[in-house]
Design a protein that fits this description.
The chain has 5 helices and 10 strands; from the N terminus they run ββαβαβαβαβαββββ. It has 182 residues and is of the alpha/beta class. It has one domain: Rossmann fold, CATH 3.40.50.2300. 31% of the residues lie in helices and 20% in strands. It comes from Rhodoplanes serenus. InterPro entries: CheY-like_superfamily (IPR011006), Sig_transdc_resp-reg_receiver (IPR001789), ST_Response_Regulator (IPR052048). Pfam families: Response_reg (PF00072).
């Protein structure tokens, strides 16, 4: 099992439910994290993001002022903040395909459905730390590569037809300071 050193990671929890923030904070502290910042809505989340520069953002979908999707879009604006590449884990009580696709299309890195488990949260964090996806920049999208499936039997020149020219920005060393052990 791969383990990461959580005490070197800074987290931002954005959720309007204080009980959910407490559960997440407790889990993160249990994993070994010491820097966990919190915000009760999207506006406060953006301000906390700007001031604390977290390594990972965990946000709820449905919140007042602006929701998790709007927060993600604001964070993902290149040049608008310190780290538009930050991994964003979206929490929601809704797992419909259209919601998962909407989150992906806004630039969410991972998706986690409530009620959460410690193992599911750990796995999502492990994924964003150990296997960071390259970022794609086109005229209409900036965020982690949405294409996860690699078909080894595909023999064509382009993976998908009709794909616009995209700049691929590899995610290297976002977490160099995080100790990973097996």
């Amino acid at each position: 099992m791969i383990r990461i050193d959580f005490n070197r990671l800074r987290f931002l929890l954005v959720d309007d439910n204080a009980h959910m923030r407490r559960i997440l904070r407790t889990l993160l502290h249990g994993f070994g994290s010491r820097e966990v910042y919190e915000a009760e809505d999207g506006a406060a989340g953006l301000e906390a993001f700007t001031h604390n520069i977290p390594d990972i953002v965990i946000t709820d979908w449905a919140m007042p002022i602006f929701d998790g999707l709007e927060l993600t879009q604001m964070i993902r604006q290149p040049g608008a903040n310190a780290n538009p590449f930050v991994p964003i884990i979206m929490l929601t009580g809704h797992s419909e395909k259209k919601r998962v696709m909407a989150a992906r299309d806004c630039g969410v890195t991972e998706f986690l459905v409530k009620p959460i488990s410690a193992n599911a949260l750990y796995q999502r964090i492990l994924t964003v730390v150990v296997n960071p996806r390259p970022f794609i920049k086109t005229k209409t999208f900036f965020g982690p590569d949405r294409r996860r499936l690699v078909n080894p039997n595909y023999v064509g020149v382009e993976r998908r037809k009709g794909t616009a020219k995209a700049e691929i920005i590899p995610q290297q060393a976002l977490f160099e300071r995080v100790k990973i052990t097996e």
